[in-house]
């Protein structure tokens, strides 16, 4: 790699000669131009490639640096003196703007931070409502026979959401029923109302804790899995491929998962209710000297069908929230590995937040309607 220089009138001519390949040291364009500067003023820079041999991207790098140095010193850089192939490569390299890596100064003013938080909350709400509308439209089309669902995806999601989740749901439900019965026994014994511990356990599990605890488990398990799956597809550009073929990701990927987790959570809630009552019965029999018959009698007399129906309704709503949050965060994932992890975390946080919020609304509505 050598660069010969000469001058023609007010033009500095750079003439790279020999082979220019990456296995050889690259000359410093700035140093070459400074050393070749004549005593008289120079107005332009041109290039002569008549003595050039083999070349690769190293030559393009040198020419780009020389052109940038010339422009920085208000010189007319004549890349049109290069061969057509080199001229195009140098022009292409100059067409890409340099990325601004200077970090923006954080605005620490309270009002500014509140404004940024408000705008971010609005964007999140807008994205959630938009995604919810698309999902509801897709589910409605399937339920009315106007749309098609990928049953294989539905079956796989249903299996992963039910059979694979049974062990942890079993353990948590038994422990929750045991804890509720134990706390109730401690309080009710003070008033001689041990008999009502069965009602406390059944009411709490059927109406509240069965659906809520199972939903939280499923959020950390199934919702995170949905976000990771769709996030990985987003990174691998599989979502873009579906859209290119005219296939809606909502209909193809999201709707089967949402319907599967809604059905799965409803079944798991009934299972969790039964196990929670069994756990509470164990505490009642061992601590309160109640017989199994007494416990079941105290369970069946006050509990009404509406308690179980409210719990099932909550399970259906929670299932929709879990599927919605997991799929939405997965489709919102960026294009790198860290974005998948962030989408998974965000799906769990969003799911739990919306579940608690929905639980409060349903309980308030049930109290107003006296259900």
From TrEMBL:
One of its GO terms (molecular function) is phospholipid transporter activity. GO terms for cellular component: ATP-binding cassette (ABC) transporter complex. Keywords: Membrane, Transmembrane, Transmembrane helix. The chain crosses the membrane at residues 165-188, 258-288, 308-327, 339-362. It comes from the Bacteria. PANTHER family: ABC TRANSPORTER PERMEASE (PTHR30188:SF3), ABC TRANSPORTER PERMEASE PROTEIN-RELATED (PTHR30188). This is Phospholipid/cholesterol/gamma-HCH transport system permease protein.
